[in-house]
Amino acid sequence: MKEIATFGESGHTISKLHLFDGVTDDGVDAMLASCTVLRIAAEEELPNMHGTEACVYVVLRGALINFLVADNSQQRRTDKILPGESIGELSVLDEAVPSNTMTAVEETDLLIIPSRLMWKLIDEVDGIARNLLRQLSFRLRAANAQLRRREKVGEFYRQLSLIDGLTSLYNRAWMNDRLPNLIEEAHAAERPLSLIMIDLDYFKKFNDEYGHVVGDNALRVAAGVLSAALRPSDFAVRYGGEELTVILPDSDASAGKMVAQRLCERMRNAIVFEDMHLPLPHVTASFGIATLDAHHGAEDLITRADAALYRAKEAGRNQISF
Ligand SMILES: Nc1nc2c(ncn2[C@@H]2O[C@H](COP(=O)(O)OP(=O)(O)OP(=O)(O)O)[C@@H](O)[C@H]2O)c(=O)[nH]1
């Protein structure tokens, strides 16, 4: 980077600089005449300060890219600063160190307006304060829009992280997060809630016999059976491996049993493999039902559903127990 001239010598005028839009005061060129014009090479980084003073940088030629330094010290690229545009106003106004680093996209010439002169211009020249405010409000809106976009993207990935990739059901992380809330809501409203633990039967044998690809398909089919049979207010979760869970808000023990019975039958009849040249493998599952007791929490509910599931397995599988 090198100082190539003063603004007065550079041949540039304020007419194309946004900060001076609508400013007709002839004195401004004179006030800026002795300001430095700095040339920085492509990919060169701009210092945060010029000397010891904060300053406004106005792009006369070339372009800058504004890198926002994130908390985790990764750099994120934001918008380009093009000829006529400026940067650094906030640091002049609040005297804080800028939170971004700027890099030249190509060889770039910059007019440097030191803080003291910037304040003098604001105080003495009509229109500059207005332009500055307009520029800052534009930047604030752009920053808000970017924040909203990031929030949406963040929410998208958060949702994605709560969905099981194979079955598209909710995953265990979702259940760990949501079940305590659902239980709290049920207690507060004094409404029932039932939970069904489901485990595919002899699934190891199924995998051994038909292979893991068909096994995966069987899991998808089992998930589909749950999704198709439940109300929109119910939740189906892949608890882990070949274990699935169904949460039934507003459902007492008899409703829980009825749903489990229906799921058990549909599971038994579901077709895993459509190819008629192969023997049609079916899957069955065992179901353990537990209904929420007053004052009991998620852990207790899962433990009781697990115990019921164990009884269904012990009793021969392909059935429900409570
Ligand atoms: N294909 C496939 N298999 C899985 C997946 N997750 C777990 N399994 C298999 O599920 C089988 C579960 O076996 P076990 O826990 O012994 O139970 P089981 O053979 O179903 O026997 P019971 O539960 O007693 O009826 C294991 O062989 C796992 O590899 C998966 O995502 N895809």
From TrEMBL:
Domain Cyclic nucleotide-binding: 56-139
Entries under SMART domains matching the protein: GGDEF (SM00267)
Catalytic activity: 2 GTP = 3',3'-c-di-GMP + 2 diphosphate
Pfam families associated with the record: cNMP_binding, GGDEF
Domain GGDEF, residue spans: 191-322
Enzyme Commission identifier(s): 2.7.7.65
Domain of life: Bacteria
InterPro entries documented for this protein: cNMP-bd_dom, cNMP-bd_dom_sf, Diguanylate_Cyclase, GGDEF_dom, Nucleotide_cyclase, Rev_trsase/Diguanyl_cyclase, RmlC-like_jellyroll
Cross-referenced NCBIfam families: GGDEF
Name of the protein: diguanylate cyclase
Protein's organism: Herminiimonas aquatilis
